[in-house]
Amino acid sequence: MFSSRVNPLLVVSAAVGALVGLPVVSVLTHIFSGGTGTTWSHLASTVLPDYVANTLVLCIAVGLGVIVIGVATAWLTAMHDFPGRALFEWALVLPMAMPAYVLAYVYTDFLQFVGPLQSLLRESFGWSKADYWFPEVRSLGGAVTMFVFVLYPYVYLLTRTAFIERAGGMLEASRTLGLGPWRSFFRVSLPLARPAVAAGATLALMETLADYGTVSYFGVQTFTTGIYRAWFSLGDRIAAAQLAAALLAFVIVVLLIEWRSRGRARFHNTTGRHRPPGGRRLPGWRGWLATAACTLPLSIGFLLPAYLLLRLALTDSDTPLGPHFATLARNSLLLAALTAIIAVTLAVLLAYGARLSKGLLAPALNRLVGLGYAVPGSVIAVGVLIPVTRLDHWLAQQWQQWSGDNPGLLITGGIAALVYAYLVRFLAVALQSVGTSLTKITRSMDDAARSLGLGQGATLRRVHLPILRGSLFTAGLLVFVDVMKELPATLVMRPFDFDTLATQAYTLASDERLAEAASVSLAIVAVGLLPLVVLSREMSRRRR
């Protein structure tokens, strides 16, 4: 029988919650730390205003961009019928497989002065450099463009679902009241979808604030680049922690804005209609205009860069695909697989513990774990390194006193600390997937298992896990892909002479060896396509 005493899984939840919260606490404790003060004073008087201004501009511009593109494409594919609609329904999520820093490398090679596009223009029209103006891709505006066309699928996915689930019957009612398509959109559909739009934009802003590769490569000074510079170039961990705390404040502000934007509003579908709307037919040029509107973000965010990557990889005969590439792939796969297995295991324990708990503590701890995804990788890296390095030195000292030998850095010298940082960052992804699926299993199954004499562990093993098999695979796959693409935490915390596909792509691109970076980037994109294939199949199945 299920015990009414303290749930042992609650202890696991508390321990995991404490470990996830430790990096954030470690960062926050250094806000008012004095240190030497020299580095912070130098940063405050020179580059800190640029960090604040550039980060604000990025957030505002990317937020507006992803909302416009995400809402427009979601509205077209959910509520209208036009040429190619069935294809765009799932294809518009493909840019999610393209990390923003990979997009930055590709378009830099394509749009720079000696790149294919400008060379073609000069050859075709006989221009010289002084005869025309071309926008600089390696700029703040270029970074905004990269983020918008990679991150708009967050808004697209959530908003399209909201349109389908909430707008169908309501639109029919609005049309009977004499509202046209545009008035129905602004007065009915968009207000109903506002929570989804806000949630998607928030996710996109979290990714923007967490990015390091794009802004660093484009020379845009943000808090993320400042953290890396303070830690490695200036060697001041206190200044790095203070910058990390400032970045964390940006994240908290974004989350508060999203939370307050909802207010006390609640959105429910009371029409009794749950089937997706058939879609209003767009005739003639209107239909082809809708096709062009959906083709543009898909082409810029995925089709063109994927073609350019493949072209670079195939035309450069010196691209290394030998033992070194195999080592990079092995390191990336090892980290991703190990993190995914641990994350899914912990997610099952946390979600099942919350299911068995009758109090509020377990769900609250799960929400605490869920906040880890909102913390940028650079902040987590700093927050992990400070306490773990101290623990490492203490363990080495104790080992030396006991055995007489100095073992070196046991945790930070290997991949353990890096896997820990990944878990803090991405455990929320697995927990969300597992927790959502677990809520769909009725309590009557637990009662039936109890009547058959099964305990908590046996019920989990023999009843829930077989039902959750598909969700566990999806959760592991999502964590696997996120780890493969993660750059800031990996750059900061990777062991000496331990590179991954992501770090190698960044290093090659930083050295302007873009053709060599293409093969490595293609591998990252190919892995990123895996969950999107699963997602697209699910979208196709639920389309009708």
UniProtKB/TrEMBL annotation:
<dbReference type="GO" id="GO:0005886">
    <property type="term" value="C:plasma membrane"/>
</dbReference>
<feature type="transmembrane region" description="Helical">
    <location>
        <begin position="238"/>
        <end position="257"/>
    </location>
</feature>
<keyword id="KW-0813">Transport</keyword>
<keyword id="KW-1133">Transmembrane helix</keyword>
<feature type="transmembrane region" description="Helical">
    <location>
        <begin position="184"/>
        <end position="206"/>
    </location>
</feature>
<dbReference type="GO" id="GO:0055085">
    <property type="term" value="P:transmembrane transport"/>
</dbReference>
<feature type="domain" description="ABC transmembrane type-1">
    <location>
        <begin position="52"/>
        <end position="256"/>
    </location>
</feature>
<dbReference type="InterPro" id="IPR035906">
    <property type="entry name" value="MetI-like_sf"/>
</dbReference>
<keyword id="KW-0472">Membrane</keyword>
<keyword id="KW-0812">Transmembrane</keyword>
<dbReference type="InterPro" id="IPR000515">
    <property type="entry name" value="MetI-like"/>
</dbReference>
<dbReference type="Pfam" id="PF00528">
    <property type="entry name" value="BPD_transp_1"/>
</dbReference>
<keyword id="KW-1003">Cell membrane</keyword>
<feature type="transmembrane region" description="Helical">
    <location>
        <begin position="9"/>
        <end position="32"/>
    </location>
</feature>
<feature type="domain" description="ABC transmembrane type-1">
    <location>
        <begin position="329"/>
        <end position="533"/>
    </location>
</feature>
<comment type="similarity">
    <text>Belongs to the binding-protein-dependent transport system permease family.</text>
</comment>
<feature type="transmembrane region" description="Helical">
    <location>
        <begin position="467"/>
        <end position="484"/>
    </location>
</feature>
<feature type="transmembrane region" description="Helical">
    <location>
        <begin position="333"/>
        <end position="352"/>
    </location>
</feature>
<feature type="transmembrane region" description="Helical">
    <location>
        <begin position="288"/>
        <end position="313"/>
    </location>
</feature>
<feature type="transmembrane region" description="Helical">
    <location>
        <begin position="87"/>
        <end position="107"/>
    </location>
</feature>
<feature type="transmembrane region" description="Helical">
    <location>
        <begin position="52"/>
        <end position="75"/>
    </location>
</feature>
<feature type="transmembrane region" description="Helical">
    <location>
        <begin position="364"/>
        <end position="388"/>
    </location>
</feature>
<feature type="transmembrane region" description="Helical">
    <location>
        <begin position="408"/>
        <end position="431"/>
    </location>
</feature>
<protein>
    <submittedName>
        <fullName>Iron ABC transporter permease</fullName>
    </submittedName>
</protein>
<feature type="transmembrane region" description="Helical">
    <location>
        <begin position="140"/>
        <end position="163"/>
    </location>
</feature>
<feature type="transmembrane region" description="Helical">
    <location>
        <begin position="517"/>
        <end position="535"/>
    </location>
</feature>
